[in-house]
């Protein structure tokens, strides 16, 4: 894709610079929007990551430790302490997991539309804490003695309190942390990336501790805690840790940015689909699909808590879930405005926009549906995988055992190893081999196929385990201390491959799914899309419970007496059917393929943005310049442009106001806005761009200027020529180091650094302390006007008053030095115009903004010999490509610039490229119609 943008509207019948220079406009322009929440933070912190988000990270670590501490012990507690069957324990465990991943929908809705994130987290955190306390109470031996009471307390605590509490927290904690970083501050944006890494580390640390120490404590107790009190101690620790989580969150209360609830995205999604269900078949079936998913969950809960009718209820749950998946897969491919297309005369514009946005969410539903079966495979870790492990040889020494739940630690540990391995070695190797990065479609297909293979592998593994024979010592059968089940003669370590296999599937499917659910929907629906992602995980756990109940007769408490492999073979067969359907449907939709626009695949279709600066101007009589055109027109209408015409015919065309309607922008401000950085927020003057583009370093506190070599009539103090000569480079470049050598008598602590830029321009940087860019320049902006004196924009600002005095003295000293320079003396003797003046304009410090890649997710290059544009690119950390023959003026080599851009995108190093063409703009400024038109 190639874009042409007409910028810097030039009236060639008037002075071009009056519209071109907007330094004074933006230097004095105040952002009309109110101060942001980050600007109003009572105290500024050098490290938001630790000073503010440290409390959030501690909260997440404690909450995840509490969650996984409970999760690892549930199955054995339900079987050994509550006396439930293996089928009931596994089914209820999966049902609870399903609730945990379903409740984030509720949490996201309440936080985004009602309470805000902080209040939602604290409120449901208290509910979570109550649930932990109830579980600890139910696990106390004195309460377990009253079985019915213990069961009631346990179910209320687990399902009502923790099920809803952890789900509501899950969808909001990471977002609350991310909210603390100012998106307009480059250093805070970098800290945010680090925050996500530490957040993930906290999750895995909590899981590692829980599956390590707490798993052992639950089963064996400790030196101070009897084994009978193991589960009570484990759940009590989880309660205390959750209390610490809430205390940690509260300690940072005064430091948090608490954004108010403003989004109605989820309500909009529901409202659009609900309103259209009677007018559109696709919308109707999608609504029914969601309702059937919920109905399936209800059937499954009933089947899990009742013995009678369990098979019938589980079959109903499976049937409704299957129909829901079919509805989402089939009708997610269709348009929800297809049956009665939203006619212009029947529908307001805002409804069309809302329907179009919801359509993008609908389009991800087929992909989401195919991940449900994968969710069923993933949920085996804490359910049936654990059952198999507990009937292997768990002995670590002749007298100690490894708790079966402890093997769950290999899942997070494997992920920690696999993610950098895939990103750093496997994916790059794939790209080098096949000359393109792995697509989202390919990674997900591989993950789904591996998930199906794992189910068959585990089924065969279970057959082998069962045939290995029971373990005996001294004639007595050895039993697992956690569940009481007999152990077989197969070492526990042989179970590790299935845990690692599931972790690899997570890396291939879940990581890709996060990207898909983020990139494929509009900004305001991204949180809703992630909630849908969690909902499909919930439905995966629901399917696990359905399978466990349906095959209950083959899953006795002692697996040696059953055929658990039947269930794994059934899940594996369904998973094979699922991956085949996935590949067919995704290919048909071209979803996640090379053309889908996925983040990873943008490298296969990079964007090159070609901007022809100054291409637009007024309609005028061209006939005196171009005899073939007798009627008035613009230079663009007159010029012969077959290539641009062909691109325009093949593309989309429109008008753009770079900043705001009616504002004639200069190149710097227009480019800032086009790159996504509003000048009213970020502009600090064009001087820093010119200086950096010329190759000058800028440290914090330096003030730079865009400067012209000009001619001053010293007798009248009038600027006779603002541009001394377009060909100044041919004779005057040696004046730049001379200007950079001047000393300011009244300001010995201020250094002046000068470097040649292009044509008659140079960049100058003032280096010293107490400098400010809040001053005016000395350039009158038109010929035959007096040289200006710099003044402070805010006279009450001492640094601005000081800096204006520095600039005025520098201007005077430079005039004196240039007037005596031998080059100028010789030119005057020859009757030529001397360059005896440097005009200062656009004072500015280096802008402090997130770089281009952090803002847009695209690695970018720039080909722009014009210093001011190159400096802007450098300020945004875009790679500046130097091209031989590219001069930034009339003499530039356009072919070399085009070839260099093509070379950059062929190498697939970049997602975005910007090519700037300046020669047309120069012709406009010089009012040289014959040069501009051909």
Automatic annotation (TrEMBL):
Q: Which UniProt keywords apply?
A: Glycolysis, Membrane, Transmembrane, Transmembrane helix
Record GO cellular component, one term = membrane
Q: Which domain of life is it from?
A: Eukaryota
A Gene Ontology biological process noted in the UniProt record is: glycolytic process
Q: Which Pfam families match?
A: Metalloenzyme, PhosphMutase, PTR2
Q: In which pathway does it act?
A: Carbohydrate degradation
Tell me yes or no: is Membrane among this UniProt entry's keywords.
Answer: yes
Where, per UniProt, does this protein localize? Membrane
InterPro entries reported in the protein's UniProt record:
Alkaline_phosphatase_core_sf, Metalloenzyme, MFS_trans_sf, Pglycerate_mutase_ApgM, POT_fam
Please name the GO terms that the record assigns under molecular function: metal ion binding; phosphoglycerate mutase activity; transmembrane transporter activity
**Could you tell me the membrane topology recorded for this protein?**
Multi-pass membrane protein
Transmembrane stretches, start-end = 48-70, 123-141, 153-174, 195-214, 229-249, 286-305, 311-331, 405-426, 446-464, 532-554, 566-585
Recorded catalytic activity of this chain's protein: (2R)-2-phosphoglycerate = (2R)-3-phosphoglycerate
Give all residue intervals belonging to the Metalloenzyme domain.
Answer: 606-932
This molecule's function is given as: Catalyzes the interconversion of 2-phosphoglycerate and 3-phosphoglycerate.
- Family in the record: Belongs to the BPG-independent phosphoglycerate mutase family. A-PGAM subfamily.
Q: What is this protein called?
A: Metalloenzyme domain-containing protein
What phylogenetic lineage does the species belong to?
Answer: Eukaryota, Sar, Stramenopiles, Oomycota, Saprolegniomycetes
